[in-house]
Amino acid sequence: MTTRAITNTTAITMDPARRVIENATILMEADRITAVGPASEISVPIEADRIAGEDMITLPGLIDSHAHAGHGLTRNLGGGDGDAWFQACEDIYTRGSTPGFWQAEARLSGLERLKAGITTCTMLLGGGADHYRTDTTEAGDLHCAATREIGIRTMLAVGLNRRPFPKRYTSLDLARDITLSFEDQMAVCGELAQNHNDLLDSRTGICLIMPVYSPAEATQDPDEICQMCDAAMALREKHGLRFTQDGHREGSIALAESFGILGPWAYLSHSVDLTAEDMEAAKRSGASIVHNPSAIMSVLGRCPAPELREMGVNVALGSDAAAPDRGYDMFRHMAQCLHYHRRHFRDPEVMMPLDVLEMCTIDAAKAIGLEDELGSLEVGKKADIILLDRRKPHLYPPMMPLTTVAQFANAADVDTVIVNGEIRMQNRRTALDEGAILDAAAQELQEAVARCDLTHLLAEQGAAG
């Protein structure tokens, strides 16, 4: 059993007391934290593998509560033309992708998350506009295999396309057209849940996703939508899954409650321009909200994250990465969150550094039902820990660590990443063939856009020549 010790560090624990400990020691045995406290109170075993924490800020591993598989390769397509980008995602994900595409994207996004200090992330298996690659288990299997290779945790959101069905796909070997039904997708989701739902120990979990319906859409065929919701909830209950949705706004949360798809096992992304009924439904049901302050939906509308938190609703932070205009840098998204709401209220104290740190650590762990296992540096919890190199001009002088992390740090400051007690990155070096991951990603994108006749979307808008 490996014993490790982080010594002489500044520890932001995110424990119930929200302790920030200077000159701290953190002990780990195997995959669990066994001690956290001032160095004067903790004896380091002579056999321990020591990690020098001088000039480091140590945090629980960051948790990104909303992102998309596939988007890591399509992130720049269209050069800012949102409609073209959405259509490209549909074309590639449903008719122009191969096993190599999904494998390369999973490795690329996993590497980016690892180097940004994200130890756990919810990844939607597709999306853009409710196009999920659940015609077979292959894309999901490949993503989970890549997660284990990279060494982080992924909660993979698999699920159901928007009605009407059936949907037209092309098989991943590009050999035949597929007519995909709601029942087909349900069966594949169930199989993925059987094979990959062990987030804590195998580092891959499965949650279920289905489209958000607006009140206007619900009037078109409420019986069919109710039947779909009932079937999805039966599958969720059978496998004990979490449930997430992408794109709530303007009455849709209250509607979701009426369909019986809200509960403390649900976490709902974007959630902009909410009605009072939406906010009360979130509180009443115990559902969490995932705020994505850097997303386009947060330009087109506003998530009332401070107001929801004041009501007692759990709010987590998501990157909505990696496309079309953002990445997995959760430090950027923390700072964006602060400025977003301060500007709205014209008040520089509406949200504070501790608030946004909670939203991507302990509150994010609560959203996935694992606040007793992840999200803070506490004895007995999983040893998911990151260290930031503080000895840099933009992080000096060495004071006020909460403010330093939330307002000045960036992904490139992450020096060391530990997941399940295993060192996955140290001195910003991994054991992965990073060059091969990057080269495969570039090759797969070029082949996908050529296959789908989308090479024109690689042109920079406004570029000379």
UniProtKB/TrEMBL annotation:
Its EC number is 3.8.1.8. The keyword Oxidoreductase does not apply. Coiled coil: none annotated. Residues 58-423 form the Amidohydrolase-related domain. It is an enzyme of class 3 (hydrolase). The keyword Phosphoprotein does not apply. PANTHER family: AMIDOHYDROLASE-RELATED DOMAIN-CONTAINING PROTEIN, AMINOHYDROLASE SSNA-RELATED. This is Atrazine chlorohydrolase. The lineage of its organism: Bacteria, Pseudomonadati, Pseudomonadota, Alphaproteobacteria, Rhodobacterales.
